[in-house]
Amino acid sequence: MKKYKQGERKTYIINIDGMRADYFGATGNHQECLTPTLVSLAKKGIRFTKCKDILPAVTATNHTAILTSTRLGTHGICGAWTHYKGLDFAHLRISSQHGTAQMDYYKHRHLQGLPTFFNVVKMNNPSSVTALVIGKHWVGEVLNDDDCDILIYAGNASNPDYVTSSKGHILGGERHEGDSILPPRLYLPKKGDRFVRSPKGTWILPFKQVNADLIPSDKWIIDQAIQTICYHDPDFMYILLNNMDSAGHTYGSFSDTNTSNLNRFINPDAMMDQLFITDSEIKRFVDFLKRRHSFENSRIIITSDHGMSSMKEAKEACDVRKVLAMNGIKIRANTRWLPFGYKDGGDYEWCFSEGNTVYIYCREDVEKEIKEALKRDLKHVHEIFDKNEQMKRGMWKGSYQDVVWPRIIVFFESNYINMGYGDGAAAASARFQLQPHFQFLIAKAYGIPFAIGTHGTPSEQAVPLILVSPDEPKVPTGVTNNNKVSVLDILPTVNALNRWPEQPTFEGIPLLFKEGVIKKKVRAKPRIQVRTSK
Ligand SMILES: [Zn+2]
User: Fold this and answer.
1) What is the whole-number distance in angstroms between the Cα of residue 295 and the centre of ligand 1?
2) What's the CA-to-centroid distance between 305 and ligand 1, angstroms?
3) How far is the CA of 218 from the centre of ligand 1 (A)?
4) Strands across the sheet with 10-16, in order?
C-alpha cells in the first residue's frame, strides 16, 4: 500500500448543496432524528455551529469559494451564469425546451491563475490523486482543472469506465400516508425515458432538461464515490450531493414554517424525507470506509454552499424592472420579442435574478440613479450593493476577461423573490427545477410563487460544518465550537493539518490551530484583482 507522510490523510469533503445549518439534528414526522449520520459524525469530531458561506449565497460562487478559499472579488464566479462582453440578446441561445433565452455558463478559464485545492494538493504532493464527484455538471465545469485527476458527473462522456448510468429517482422519496398532497413528489426519469409511467404519487418530468443525468440521485453520487475509492483511492475527493438543493427549490424549507403564508405551499414531508435519504447516503459512504478499515485514517468534512428559504405568495413577488420603468429608467435589452437584440435609448443593459439576489448590469453614470429609485420604491429589499459596497465586502471583481460585472446587486429579505422574467436565471428555475410552464401552472392554481424555495439570502447563510478525523491529534472528538467561522476556512484547515506550507492565495484561516484563534489572525484582505490572465 502507498505510504503517506505523517499527518497526511485521505480527505473527503461532502458538500450537501442547499443544506441549512438548522437541519442538523432536526426531527421529522416519519423518522425521529432526520440526520442520525451527521449527528454521529459530529460526536466523533468537531462541529462548528456558526459557519457562514459568502455572498451571494448561491451555488457556483460558494463551491468556488470553498475550493479556492477566496471571496467573490477574487475568484469572480458570480452566480451560475455570466454576462459576457459583447453578449447581446441576438447572441443568446434560445432554449429548445421552453423558448427562453439563457446566458452561457462560466468556463473554467475564468479561474486561470487562481489555484484550486486540486492545484494545492499536487503542488505539495505531485503523486497524489484527486477526484471531483459532482451532482451538478456545471459546477464541475467551473472547478475542474488539470490537477483534478478524476471528474465524474452524470452524463459525462469522459467518466471512468466503472461509472454506472444515472437512474430515475424521486425527489423526497416515496410518498407515504399523511403526506402533503401538493406540490406532489417529483420523479426524475432516466435521460431519454420520455414516456415511462411515474411511480404512484409522483409527477414525472419527461423533459430534456430535468432528468436523472442533469440531477442524479445522491445514491448515484455516493455509488460513484465508493467505486472511485475502490479503483483509484484518491487522496482528496470533493463530493457534491445535489438532492437537498433540488428538493428545497421544489418543496420549500421545512424549518421556515413560522413565517406566515408559507405553510400552504411547502411540502415539509418531502423535504424531511429527502434530508433523511441524503443522510442515509452519507452513512453508506461512512460504512464503506469502516468496512475497508480506512475510516480511522480518513478526514471527513461535511458542509454546504448555502441554505434554502421558502418564498411568499406569488402576489408578493417583487419586480425590479417594473420599479425602474416606473422611475423612467429603461432597460436596453429587448427581452420580449424576437429577435432579442438591444433597443436604442435604454438606460441600463439588463437585470436578472438568481434566488432572491438580483444582478443589474449598468453604466457607471446611471448606478446612483438606479440605486436610489430601488431604495425608494422597491419593497422587501434588504440591501442594495453598488460598486463601493461590493468592494468593501470583497465582492467586486469588476469586468475581467470577457465577463461584465453587475454594478448593482439587490438582496431581498429572505422570504421574497424577484419576478421570474424567463430570460435569465430567475431563481435558477430554468435548468434545475420545474420547467417554467409547469411552474406557472402550479403557481396560477395555488397562488404560489414562481419558485417555492430559493436562496441567496441577504446575509451570509449559516451552513453546517463538521470535521471528523479519528485519532488525528489536532482534531478534537465530540466538540461543539461556537466561534464564527467561514466556508473559506475549510481548506486552509486541511492544508494546515497536512502540514503543508501556508498557501498565499487563501483568504480563509486554518481552524483548530492556535495561531488562528489566539492571535486572532486577521483574514487576508479581499483581493480586488488577483491576477490578470491574458
Ligand atoms: Zn447550491
Assistant:
1) 27
2) 6
3) 14
4) 150-152, 130-134, 236-241, 10-16, 298-303, 462-468, 46-52, 479-486
Q: Of the candidates 145, 113, 114, which has an alpha carbon nearest to the alpha carbon of residue 131?
A: 145
Average pLDDT over residues 146-174: 94
Cell numbers that stand for 299 in this block: 478526514
Judge whether 81 and 102 are in contact, CB under 8 Å.
yes
Percent of the chain with pLDDT over 90: 53
Q: Which residues surround ligand 1, an ion (CB under 5 A)?
A: 17, 59, 245, 305
Separation of 360 CA from ligand 1 center, angstroms?
A: 21
Edge to edge, the sheet with strand 202-204 lists 169-171, 185-188, 202-204
How far CA 177 is from CA of 95, 181, 524, in Å, comes to 39, 10, 53
First to last CA, the chain: 43
Contact (Cβ atoms closer than 8 angstroms) between residue 425 and residue 335: no
**Cα angle: 185, vertex 441, 317; to 5 degrees:** 100
100-145 residue pLDDT tens = 334 455 555 667 678 999 999 999 999 999 999 999 887 887 888 8
pLDDT in tens, 228-285: 999 999 999 999 999 999 999 888 899 887 777 777 778 888 999 999 999 999 999 9
* Nearest-angstrom CA–CA distance, 179 and 516: 47
Place of cell 451564469: 81
Q: Supply 358's cell numbers.
A: 438580483
Give the pTM: 0.89
Nearest to 494 by CA among 147, 131, 237: 237
Task: Kindly state the cell numbers that stand for 34.
Answer: 432526520
Q: Are 236 and 11 in contact (CB under 8 A)?
A: yes
Grid coordinates representing 304?
Answer: 454546504
Going from the Cα of 52 to the center of ligand 1, the distance in angstroms, rounded, reads 14
Answer yes or no: are the C-beta atoms of 411 and 457 closer than 8 Å: yes
Tell me whether residue 476 is exposed, middle or buried, using C-beta atoms within 10 angstroms of its C-beta: 0 to 12, 13 to 18, 19 or more. middle
Distance 328 CA to ligand 1 centre (A): 35
| Closest listed residue to residue 8, CA positions, set 229, 227, 292, 234 | 234
Cα–ligand 1 centroid distance for 329 (angstroms): 32
Number of Cα atoms under 13 Å in the Cβ half of residue 532: 2
What are the C-alpha distances in Å from 229 to residues 73, 262, 294, 419?
35, 42, 11, 44
Q: How far is the CA of 306 from the centre of ligand 1 (A)?
A: 6
> Quick one: cell of 481?
465550537
How far is Cα 93 from Cα 383, in angstroms, rounded to an integer?
32
